[in-house]
Design a protein that fits this description.
two-stranded antiparallel ribbon, 9 strands, mainly beta, single chain
């Protein structure tokens, strides 16, 4: 085991999706099939600001809304998210279509698809040793989509989802939206 740890190289990826401590308030962010699970309509705004007083401090804001259609089994939703860390900014606009399948009086299975447009921006000054500062302002966009399954009853919930099924490339930034 020690040999493996010391001499075997491998690559890892950090998270590309913001994580919030208010997961139970914003489940639709992680699993689109959670839309309409508990209410016929839902709307809200969520924000998080860290390191107050520092330029470029982490900031997250999101607005979301969804409602159940007249047939009582179809749900549509819309989300907008903004995430900032230093000179890196991220916008996401996501539509959601969720189909609820009642399994019995209390248990419902939901399946959802969610097309999404992500826009990323780097705007600031790069400072390298021995070279003049370089002003940068690059914006790029990519389309992806996600899917989820959500089993819900008054006593428990369980689900599985992928926010980004398609690995889309942002060519201007040389960046790939990884599947997860």
């Amino acid at each position: 085991m020690l040999f493996f740890i010391l001499f075997v190289a491998f690559s890892t990826n950090a998270q590309q999706i913001a994580h919030t401590t208010g997961f139970n308030l914003y489940q639709e962010y992680y699993n689109p099939a959670a839309c309409g699970a508990e209410k016929d309509w839902n709307a809200g705004v969520i924000t998080r600001k860290q390191w107050l007083g520092f330029d470029g401090s982490p900031f997250l804001a999101g607005a979301f809304g969804d409602f159940t259609l007249k047939n009582k089994i179809s749900v549509i939703g819309l989300q907008y998210d903004y995430d900032q860390l230093g000179m890196f900014k991220y916008h996401s606009i996501r539509a959601i279509y969720n189909q609820k399948i009642p399994l019995n009086r209390k248990l419902t299975l939901s399946a959802a698809l969610s097309p999404e447009m992500q826009i990323r921006n780097i705007s600031g000054t790069f400072i390298y040793p021995s070279t003049p500062p370089e002003e940068v302002n690059i914006t790029d966009a990519a389309f992806t989509f996600g899917a989820g399954i959500y089993l819900h009853s008054p006593d428990f919930t369980v689900g599985i989802s992928s926010r980004q099924i398609v690995e889309s490339k942002m060519t201007e930034l040389g960046y790939t939206l990884k599947r997860h």
